[in-house]
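Renewal narrative, Specific Aim 1. Our central claim is that a sequence can be written position by position from structural information alone. The example that follows is taken directly from our test logs and has not been curated for this report. It begins with the structure tokens describing the chain, in the order in which they were read.
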């Protein structure tokens, strides 16, 4: 396990250097789906395939990479069942923020074992913050990868919702949902890594989103160590295991339904505050 953790942390560290180096001169482009891609996305994707090649060549590992044109080929339960280690990377999560030189973007890398979240790292290069799970514990590291770094153990979170509480939503708010709460307020960061990492250290009581696998894979094991879970918006069923049927095939690896990230106690209270607009569907 320590070998995987060392490789994971080394990879996100190097990816952070690449992201910072390319940020000022970033020339973003639009993909066919109108999402943004930058030179940093491409460079970090190539770096990940290079660094993980020793594992990938064994046939026991696969890398699901947002920028890999083959990613949809792995979206099959039979394939996942015979592949014990599944890596998933988002080279730059929050690409629009990154392209506009905003700090709430991150490099997200997760490793699932036997289809369950196991190890993960999310690095915010501009903020110099690293969230990671080593399989036993999860940590927030401030001033990450420097001589002055400070490592803080992430403990279970169960915030009592009050007027100071913040619930983080994607930019679907106002389009697909209405939010009504006498106390808790909504914030939008436009990056999944912020939506998922911030609540693990008390920066918010939870979030609502429908994202791609690579958006949450790095944060997934960290979330569990923080005593939080993704729960299905309608049924409340926790997302515990990687199943191909949970995701659309076009676009590949995007969750079909919305999930609320929260503690068990807060799920129903948060769900009551959210109304899905009738024309939006699920």
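The sequence written for that structure reads:
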């Amino acid at each position: 396990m320590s070998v995987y953790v060392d490789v994971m942390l080394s990879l996100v560290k190097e990816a952070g250097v690449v992201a910072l180096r390319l940020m000022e001169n970033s020339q973003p482009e639009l993909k066919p789906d109108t999402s943004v891609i930058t030179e940093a996305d491409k460079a970090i994707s190539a770096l990940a395939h290079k660094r993980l090649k020793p594992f990938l060549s064994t046939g026991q590992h696969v890398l699901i990479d947002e920028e890999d044109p083959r990613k949809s080929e792995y979206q099959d339960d039979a394939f996942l069942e015979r592949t014990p280690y599944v890596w998933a990377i988002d080279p730059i999560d929050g690409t629009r923020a990154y392209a506009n030189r905003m700090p709430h973007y991150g490099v997200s890398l997760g490793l699932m074992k036997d289809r369950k979240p196991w190890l993960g790292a999310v690095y915010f290069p501009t903020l110099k913050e690293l969230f990671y799970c080593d399989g036993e514990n999860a940590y927030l590291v401030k001033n990450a990868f420097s001589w002055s770094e400070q490592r803080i153990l992430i403990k279970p979170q169960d915030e009592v919702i009050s007027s100071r509480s913040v619930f983080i939503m994607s930019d679907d708010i106002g389009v697909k949902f209405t939010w009504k709460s006498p106390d808790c307020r909504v914030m939008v960061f436009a990056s999944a890594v912020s939506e998922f990492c911030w609540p693990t250290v008390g920066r918010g009581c939870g979030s609502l989103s429908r994202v791609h696998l690579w958006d949450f894979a790095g944060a997934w094991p960290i979330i569990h160590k923080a005593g939080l879970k993704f729960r299905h918006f309608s049924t409340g069923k926790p997302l515990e295991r990687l199943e191909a049927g949970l995701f659309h095939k076009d676009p590949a690896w995007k969750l079909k339904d919305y999930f609320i990230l929260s503690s068990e106690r807060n799920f129903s209270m948060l769900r009551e505050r959210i109304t899905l607009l009738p024309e939006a569907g699920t």
